[in-house]
Fold this sequence. Notes:
It is a single chain. This protein is of the alpha/beta class. It has 2 domains: 2-231, Spore Coat Polysaccharide Biosynthesis Protein SpsA, Chain A (Alpha-Beta Complex), CATH 3.90.550; 236-306, no CATH class. It has 10 helices and 11 strands. Helix 1 links the parallel strand 1 (2-8) and strand 2 (32-38). The chain is globular and about 70 Å long. This is 4,4'-diaponeurosporenoate glycosyltransferase. GO terms for molecular function: glycosyltransferase activity.
Amino acid sequence: MIxxxxxxxxxxxxxxRCLQSVRAALEGVLPYExxxxxxxxxxxxxxxxxxxxxxxxxPDDARTTPALGRWVGTQxxxxxxxxxxxxxxxxxxxxVQAGLAAMDRGYAxxxxxxxxxxxxxxxxxxxxxxxxxxxxxRTAPEFGGAVMLRRDAxxxxxxxxxxxxxxxxxxxxxxxxxxxxxxVELPVPMITHTDRVRDARGLFGTIFTRRRLGQGQxxxxxxxxGSAGQLMLCDRPTRLWALQALCLIACALxxxxxxxxxxxxxxxxxxxxxxxxxxxxxxxxxxxxxxVSAWLLLAYMPAxxxxxxxxxxxxxxxxxxx
Length: 322
């Protein structure tokens, strides 16, 4: 049996679309169950989910995270294959069958093509047809919130980490890879993700985000689990810039030891000019974002690692009436 585990908060009509797409894709095709884990919604998401036949659960801890919701769903699931979705996604017909066939060849899990639709004020303002750029079957370099996993493989890796606020998929993927458990990425439509476009947050809102803290939290957990070598928190260009930045920091510290504060000040001034020139050159090529992301990644790592908090994993089944 396939256990489809959906997480959400205040999704409203989105939950209805998600669960209806699951029923349309699997009804009469494969035995399945639907589980909805709600992060203390204030709307009618729970009622909608129950009316469509989902077993509904609510975590005891009000400080919910996506990983906590998925871990609650994992504990409640009856199936040996677990399909994880977010409440703002719809499942594409045919993916589950293709994923199961691939997993029969020894993979721990499967994911597919993610289509993003950007919506603002109820109106579609953009679209990305293949978010991860999958053109052929391959071992997944990364996966997002939509992934199908063997239950035994997930448990062998330690399950979802409820303490990580964001980047929980990368942290789990690192533990899977450390144990030689590969996820296959298929050139098959898997989900459509509705991304609500928010108004511009300004410089402060762009820099200070939960995701940046989550990167540090994921790194701390990966170091603890011994899987930091497999952790991928950002794209390849950003990783290369981050490595360069670490080398520069090391050189600056060496300059401080050798020449004192004067040497450090001279080094910092020269490096600031070099970084500014590089940023201008990269901006013309459209790659400035990677350089900025690399410095923000390093700047936020200590804060993220320090912000990790333990969360309770208890939960209760919601017994409302449909």
